[in-house]
Design brief:
single chain; 3 helices
Length: about 70
């Protein structure tokens, strides 16, 4: 096991950013609460909901931050 030591200020900044991210995701889920997993979204919908560019979306997929599924190469 490796131990990584960081400054308290850095850790608190990371926690604050993560909390803001969670709040944002909760707001999106609440706003679109009627959707179920059977309703698929395309790239444009995801980019609009997360307020990110298509390149950022691809980066999130590539590094495993955002899970996704493909149907018929879409």
């Amino acid at each position: 096991m490796e131990i990584v030591s960081i400054e308290r200020k850095t850790f608190e900044a990371m926690v604050a950013k993560f909390d803001r991210f969670v709040s944002r995701m909760d707001a999106i889920c609440h706003r679109h609460g009627e959707k179920t997993m059977s309703e698929w979204m395309d790239n444009q919908d995801v980019c609009r909901m997360l307020n990110i560019s298509p390149r950022t979306l691809q980066t999130l997929r590539d590094n495993g931050t955002l899970a996704y599924s493909q149907i018929n190469h879409k």
